[in-house]
Automatic annotation (TrEMBL), chain A:
Source organism of the structure: Micromonospora ureilytica
Keyword presence, Cytoplasm: no
Spans through the membrane: 12-32, 69-93, 105-126, 138-161, 182-205, 242-263
Principal location listed in the UniProt entry: membrane
Annotated family: Belongs to the binding-protein-dependent transport system permease family.
Name listed for the protein in its UniProt record: Multiple sugar transport system permease protein
SUPFAM superfamilies per the UniProt record, alphabetical: MetI-like
InterPro entries cross-referenced by the UniProt entry: BP-dep_ABC_trans_perm (IPR050901), MetI-like (IPR000515), MetI-like_sf (IPR035906)
Entries under CDD domains matching the protein: TM_PBP2
Automatic annotation (TrEMBL), chain B:
Ranges where the ABC transporter domain occurs: 4-235
Domain of life: Bacteria
Name of the protein described by the UniProt record: Sn-glycerol-3-phosphate ABC transporter ATP-binding protein UgpC
PANTHER family: MALTODEXTRIN IMPORT ATP-BINDING PROTEIN MSMX (PTHR43875), TREHALOSE IMPORT ATP-BINDING PROTEIN SUGC (PTHR43875:SF15)
Organism: Micromonospora trifolii
Keyword Membrane: yes
Gene for this chain: ugpC
PROSITE patterns documented for this protein: ABC_TRANSPORTER_1 (PS00211), ABC_TRANSPORTER_2 (PS50893)
GO molecular function: ATP binding
Length: 278, 402
């Protein structure tokens, strides 16, 4: 009887899971399917393409526009991620380890930044960046990305740092390490899962951003893929770009998947087990 | 190796907590000193100040004659074993033990040799390539010790290193620690809240309460000649019995009968501000079944009768619990001790009397039994400040001393 109930319960949960996954994946798969269709069969309503083609992919890599945007996206996102994670790690470490005046205020303000509606900042940023002559440059995108990624980074990282027993750092100091050595050789390796998790989150945030990308760039010089997609015309301006846009959409999800897969293996939970007690 | 001197060392935290107050302590080269006291009394803070992990608020700390107040831990050349062991989880046992040597920039061969030596001493050789997560509690503890001894520091500091082990392993490791310390002859400061550990391990024991040192001395001296009520109640297991005693006409009225007092105590009680009530303290082993006492011994004590509550036969002797009537002894120290022991271990101040009688005693539960106790071993305490009135020039002489 009990077994029966659990099998039935399992079945119910399993069905529910499938439903959720299908719901989430259908649009993605649809785009993937469109990207493999020929212009003629594009609107035939079949989920599985009747005629397979790689033309769409060839098209986007032939146009300098897309490749250039891809390079911009990768460069901007990687640099912003790196800077945000390094700065965030230092801030989070201070927040979790030190008691300094105004600590609560600092954490509060940084959270406030994260909640600030980004749309309201677009116009001022546009003006500021034009004045500073960083409009339509990598820097012009990287700076706001860092601003909005930092609170996220600080918040997740300080949660990770708090989990690391403080005794380890004391032990390192007793063993003859300087503050810097203790951080680099003992704390940082243990915080690695946190650093990678944060890196993934920040990278995805930068990679997916459309708002800043569209408003703070004006040419291919620094336009990232999400913005570039909206200017997409296909090989010639008379062609329907739907297939090409879909192909581009598939291509830009690939780095995210790779990034997550690569770092996921490093996010070994329980890395700190065995440090303290039994 | 070096001596460690604490000269009026105090610590107050930014929130106003005074954790350690004017601690004076001279630890000789090679000595094994235990800091003991209930939790929260400032032991760890004291140790952390010696280590350099906590700033000293006032006073001076000297290691090997040198003032080290402002030196970083790494410049003090002392090793520490933490209660949590604090092993680096991402490193193998070998890497853990080699870590201090690598920071000291020794060459690889020397490091390997030293780690192997230390591993042999602590029987860790077969575990060198494991990660801490794959070790038992006892093994982790040994690795933590290994990491401390491997670089031959001037001194060892240990903060409750055995308190996370189970009872049996703790006793085993106690002898390991003791032997290791004798063998290496390194100055060691060892913190514990367990009075048994303190009694069995140290050359000298420092008893702390509320951030202040109560008494410093060899274990036996603390046991026999406690300076105050707190020390008397803290040292010893089962703990000393405490009874209320009313001073009247040069005698003490207690639940065990009227106790005579000698000239010395009488003189103390004649002072204008002398207390009218005292607390009488007597250890379980200073009782005996009245039937088994010879006449010569009988003269040095007195007898009373009381109903037997519980008999615990230990083989070598019997712990017999009696119920006694009368007012309970009360003092701040006793309450603190009871709170620390969780009220189960510390029956000292209740209506219960714990005695240790010879195994030959035919005592049985439910009877009323006649019991003798030794008046020369009695301590009398002033409930107001806890002072031991029977202590004269550091020696306790009982109630009858002239
Ligand atoms: N960082 C701190 N800030 C404020 N008070 C503290 C701090 N660390 C310890 N204390 C207080 O100092 C006292 C002594 O603590 P500690 O030395 O850890 O005691 P023990 O090791 O004897 O149990 C306690 O009352 C504790 O609450
Ligand atoms: Mg402590």
């Amino acid at each position: 009887m009990a077994v029966e109930t659990t099998t039935r319960a399992k079945l119910r949960w399993g069905l529910l899971d499938v439903l959720v996954v299908v719901f989430a994946l259908v649009p993605v798969l649809w785009i993937a399917s469109l990207s493999f269709k020929t212009p003629a069969t594009l609107t035939d309503g079949n989920f599985i393409p009747r005629e397979w083609t790689l033309d769409n992919y060839r098209t986007i890599f032939d146009t300098d526009q897309f490749v250039r945007a891809l390079v911009n996206s990768i460069g901007v996102a990687l640099i912003a991620t790196l800077v945000a994670v390094v700065l965030g790690a230092m801030a989070a470490y201070a927040i979790s380890r030190l008691d300094f005046p105004g600590k609560k205020l600092l954490v509060g303000v940084s959270l406030l930044i994260a909640m600030f509606p980004q749309v309201s900042l677009v116009s001022p940023l546009f003006e500021i960046e034009r004045q500073l002559k960083i409009f339509d440059t990598w820097l012009g995108l990287i700076l706001p990305y860092i601003t909005f990624a930092l609170p996220l980074a600080i918040y997740t990282l300080s949660a990770f740092f708090k989990q690391i027993p403080w005794d380890l750092e004391k032990a390192a100091k007793m063993d003859g390490a300087t503050q810097g050595q203790a951080f680099r050789r003992v704390i940082a390796p243990l915080a690695a899962p946190g650093l990678f998790t944060t890196a993934i989150l920040v990278f995805i945030f930068c990679w997916n951003d459309f708002l800043f990308a569209i408003s703070l760039t004006s040419t291919e010089r620094s336009r990232t893929v999400p913005a570039a997609l909206s200017f997409f015309t296909g090989a010639s301006q008379f062609e329907d770009p739907t297939g090409a846009i879909c192909a581009a959409a598939v291509v830009i999800t690939v780095p995210i998947i790779l990034f997550v897969l690569f770092f996921q293996r490093r996010i070994v939970s329980g890395l700190t087990s065995g440090a303290v007690k039994g | 190796m070096a001596d460690i001197v604490l000269d009026k060392v105090s610590k107050s935290f930014p929130d106003g907590t005074v954790a350690v107050q004017d601690v004076d302590l001279e630890i000789a080269d090679g000595e094994f000193v235990i800091l003991v006291g209930p939790s929260g009394c400032g032991k760890s803070t004291t140790l952390n100040m010696i280590a350099g992990l906590e700033d000293i608020s006032s006073g001076e700390l000297r290691i090997a004659g040198q003032r080290v107040n402002d030196k970083a831990p790494r410049d003090r050349d002392i090793a520490m074993v933490f209660q949590s062991y604090a092993l680096y989880p991402n490193m193998t046992v070998r890497e853990n033990m080699a870590f201090p040597l690598r920071l000291a920039k020794l060459d690889k061969e020397t490091i390997d040799r030293k780690v192997d030596e230390a591993a042999k001493v602590l029987e860790l050789t077969s575990l060198l390539d494991r990660k801490p997560a794959n070790l038992s509690g006892g093994q982790r503890q040994r690795v933590a010790m290994g990491r401390a001894i491997v670089r031959q520091p001037k001194a060892f500091l240990m903060d409750e290193p055995l308190s996370n082990l189970d009872a049996k392993l703790r006793v085993q490791m106690r002898t390991v620690v003791s032997r290791l310390q004798k063998q290496l002859g390194t100055t060691t400061v060892y913190v514990t809240h367990d009075q048994t550990e303190a009694m069995t391990l140290g050359d000298r024991v420092v008893i702390m309460r509320g951030g202040a040192v109560q008494q410093v001395g060899p274990p036996q001296e603390l046991y026999d000649h406690p300076k105050n009520l707190f020390v008397a109640g803290f040292i010893g297991s089962p703990s000393m019995n405490f009874l209320h005693a009313a001073v009247q006409d040069g005698e003490l009225h207690t639940a065990l009968g009227t106790v005579p007092i000698g000239d010395r105590v009488r003189r103390e009680l004649e002072a204008a501000d002398a207390p009218r009530e005292l607390i009488l303290g007597i250890r379980p082993e200073h009782f005996e079944d009245a039937e088994l006492v010879d006449d010569d011994t009988r003269r040095r004590g007195m007898e009373f009768e009381a109903p037997v509550d519980i008999v615990e036969s230990m083989g070598s002797d019997k712990y017999v619990y009696f119920t006694v009537e009368g007012e309970k002894a009360s003092a701040a120290e006793l309450e603190e001790l009871a709170a620390d022991a969780g009220a189960t271990d510390f029956a000292g101040a209740g209506g219960n009397l714990v005695t240790r009688l010879s195994a030959e005693s035919p005592v049985a539960e439910g009877q009323t039994r006649r019991v003798w106790f030794n008046l020369e071993k009695i301590h009398l305490f002033d409930p107001a400040n806890g002072r031991n009135l029977t202590l004269h020039e550091g020696r306790a002489a009982g109630a009858l001393a002239d």
